[in-house]
Design a protein that fits this description.
By secondary structure, the chain is mainly alpha-helical. Helices cover about 45% and strands about 5% of the residues.
C-alpha cells in the first residue's frame, strides 16, 4: 500500500504480479484452501456516508472476494483419492497394456459388480455384469485396465437401471388389485426421499435380507437416515419446492430503488442459505414443525445481518443467531420468503397474501376471472406518490376484484413494513408517510404487524401442519397429491398432534402410509407416474 500511495503509476501492477502464478505441490483429492491477509487494519472509515455493502464502517478491513486455482501442472502419477478408493476396491496383481490379463479381468469384474449393486440399488445378475464387462473390454483395448474401468463406469451411468426407478408389478395380479412394493423398491424410495440419493450399504443390505418391511427395522433406518448429514437435502431441496422459492431467482432487485440490495449487494443467494440452514435446524433437532413459524433464531452472515439491521455479526460465515426483534421470527421474517413474494421494484400485499394462503394455510385463492385489470400505476408521480395501500384501494374499487382481495390483502399488508427486499422500514420513501400495516382478517381479527399475523396463524397450528404434511407427501411420493390422498394427510396431522407435531413423527407416518408403501395395478390405458425428484 505504501508503493501505491507514494509511487502510484505501475505500483498496482507490481503488487498484483506478486499474487499471480503462485505454485504449490499437492496430492490428488479434495483439499481445503484458505487465502487471507497477514496484516489487517480495523481503522474506521473516513467516508462521509456509510457503505451499503457488508463491512459497514470498517471498509478498510481487507478481504479476498475470490481467487482462481489452475492446474495440475507437472503431474507425477496418480495418488489415492476418496472417489478412486470407492471405485477401485481391488488392484490386479499384474498389468498389461490391453487390460486383458486374467488378474485384471477378475479385478475389473469385482469392481463392476460392486458399482452396479450400488448404482442399480439391487443385487446384480450375471447378465448385468456381462453387459458392463463388454464396455470394459472396449475401453481396455486402448486404455488398459483403468481405461476399461472408465468405459464400464460410463456404460453403468448410462444404464436405464441407474437412471430410472422402475417398480415391478407382481405376476398374477389383476387390474385394480393393491400390493406392497418390494423391500428393494422401498429402500430406493426411502433413500431418495430422505437423502435425494441412492441407498447406502446398510439400507441396501437390509432390503436384500428382506428385513426392511419389519416396522422396527424401518423405524430404525428412518431415524438413522434423518440423523445422517445427507438428510440436509430435506432443507435444501424439499423446502424450496414446498415454498416455491424458484421465483426468487426471477426477482432481480431494481438497482435504482434498492441500491443496497442489488449488484454486488444482491442478497438472494445468502437468503437461500439462511432459509436452508434455518429449516435444517428445525428438522435436525426434531422440533415441532410449527417452529418453522415461531422459532426465535436464524442463521446469518454479515451481509444478511446488516440487511436485517443487526450490527454485531461480522464476516461471510453463517452462524446461528438468537433474534431479539420478534418481527424476524420464523418464516414470515425471512428475506427469501419476503422477496420471493414481491416485485423487483415494490412490495405486493397480494403476492404475500397469496403466499400465506397457499403455502402456510393450505387454502390457495381462486384463479382471477378473465379480464380483471392489473394494478393501475399510471398516475404515480403525476400528482403525488401513492403508497401501495392507496394503489390497492383504487384496484379494490372494482367489485370483481374486491372479493378475493378482502381475504389476501390484510395478510399481505401485515408485512408491509418489510420492503420488497425484506428490509424493515417505518416510512414509505416515495410517499413520505408512515407505513400503515393494519388490516382485519375475514374472521374479524385485527392485524397490525408481523407479530399479529403470526399469532393469528398459530391459533390453528393444524392448518399449517396440514399444508406442511401435504407438501412433504408430494415430495416423498414424487407426484401431485390426488383428492383421495388428503384423508391420509389429515390422519398424519391428527396422530402427530399429541407430540406437538414433531418432525420425525410426521416423516415416520409418511413412510408408513399406504401411499408410500403400496401400489395399485393400473387398468389398461391408465397413466402411471414416474418416480424421481
Amino acid at each position: 500500500m505504501k508503493a501505491y500511495d507514494q509511487v502510484q503509476s505501475g505500483a498496482l501492477d507490481k503488487v498484483n504480479a506478486r499474487l499471480k502464478n503462485i505454485r504449490f505441490a499437492a496430492t490428488a483429492g479434495p483439499h481445503r484452501i484458505g487465502v487471507t491477509f497477514k496484516r489487517r487494519t480495523f481503522a474506521e472509515s473516513d467516508d462521509q456516508l456509510q457503505m451499503f455493502a457488508a463491512g459497514g464502517g470498517q471498509d478498510r478491513f481487507y478481504r479476498v472476494n475470490s481467487f482462481q486455482l489452475q492446474g495440475p501442472f507437472n503431474v507425477k502419477g496418480l495418488s489415492a483419492t476418496p472417489s478412486r478408493d470407492r471405485i477401485f476396491v481391488c488392484s490386479p496383481s499384474r498389468r498389461s497394456s490391453a487390460g486383458d490379463d486374467p488378474s485384471e479381468v477378475g479385478c475389473a469384474r469385482t469392481i463392476v459388480s460392486a458399482l452396479a449393486k450400488r448404482a442399480y440399488r439391487r443385487p446384480v445378475a450375471a447378465d448385468d455384469v456381462t453387459e458392463l464387462m463388454l464396455y470394459y473390454g472396449e475401453g481396455a483395448k486402448d486404455g488398459g485396465f483403468e481405461g476399461g474401468v472408465r468405459s464400464a463406469l460410463t456404460g453403468l451411468l448410462a444404464s436405464p437401471f441407474f437412471l430410472y426407478r422402475a417398480e415391478h408389478i407382481p405376476v398374477g395380479l389383476r387390474p385394480g388389485e393393491v400390493y406392497a412394493i418390494s423391500d428393494l423398491e422401498l429402500a430406493s424410495n426411502l433413500s431418495f426421499f430422505l437423502w435425494n440419493s441412492i441407498p447406502d450399504e446398510e439400507l441396501l443390505q437390509a432390503a436384500i435380507d428382506n428385513k426392511l418391511h419389519d416396522p422396527l427395522v424401518l423405524d430404525r433406518q428412518v431415524k438413522r437416515m434423518l440423523a445422517d448429514p445427507r438428510s440436509m437435502t430435506l432443507a435444501s431441496n424439499f423446502v424450496p419446492q414446498w415454498l416455491d422459492m424458484k421465483r426468487l431467482d426471477e426477482i432481480v432487485p431494481d438497482q435504482a430503488v434498492f441500491p443496497y440490495a442489488s449488484g454486488r449487494s444482491d442478497p438472494r443467494e445468502d437468503f437461500k442459505t439462511e432459509l436452508t440452514l434455518f429449516s435444517d435446524s428445525i428438522f435436525r433437532e426434531d422440533r415441532s414443525v410449527v417452529d418453522l413459524l415461531r422459532a426465535k433464531h436464524t442463521y446469518l452472515n454479515e451481509r444478511i445481518a446488516l440487511h436485517y439491521g443487526i450490527t454485531d455479526v461480522k464476516g461471510d460465515r453463517f452462524r446461528r443467531v438468537d433474534l431479539k426483534d420478534s418481527v424476524r421470527w420464523g418464516l414470515l421474517g425471512k428475506g427469501a420468503v419476503l422477496m420471493a413474494a414481491a416485485y423487483p421494484n415494490r412490495t405486493s400485499p397480494v403476492l404475500r397474501g397469496k403466499f400465506i394462503l397457499e403455502h402456510l394455510q393450505g387454502v390457495p385463492p381462486a384463479t382471477p376471472p378473465p379480464g380483471v385489470p392489473t394494478l393501475d400505476e399510471k398516475d404515480v408521480g403525476t400528482t403525488k406518490a401513492l403508497t401501495v395501500r392507496e394503489m390497492m384501494a383504487k384496484h379494490r374499487a372494482n367489485p370483481t376484484c374486491a372479493a378475493c382481495h378482502a381475504v389476501m390483502d390484510p395478510l399481505g399488508f401485515a408485512l408491509e413494513n418489510f420492503d420488497a427486499t425484506g428490509r424493515w422500514r417505518d416510512r414509505d420513501r416515495f410517499a413520505g408517510v408512515a407505513i400503515d400495516a393494519s388490516g382485519k382478517l375475514p374472521d374479524g381479527t385485527p392485524v397490525n404487524n408481523p407479530d399479529d399475523l403470526r399469532n393469528a396463524l398459530l391459533r390453528r397450528p393444524d392448518y399449517f401442519v396440514q399444508t406442511f404434511t401435504e407438501g412433504l407427501m408430494t415430495y416423498a411420493l414424487a407426484r401431485k397429491l390426488e383428492p383421495w390422498d388428503i384423508p391420509t394427510a389429515r390422519r398424519i396431522v391428527r396422530s402427530s398432534a399429541a407430540g406437538d407435531y414433531r418432525f420425525s413423527a410426521i416423516v415416520q407416518s409418511v413412510v408408513k402410509s399406504d401411499q408410500f408403501r403400496m401400489r395399485r395395478v393400473p387398468h389398461a390405458g391408465e397413466k402411471t407416474s414416474v418416480a424421481g425428484h
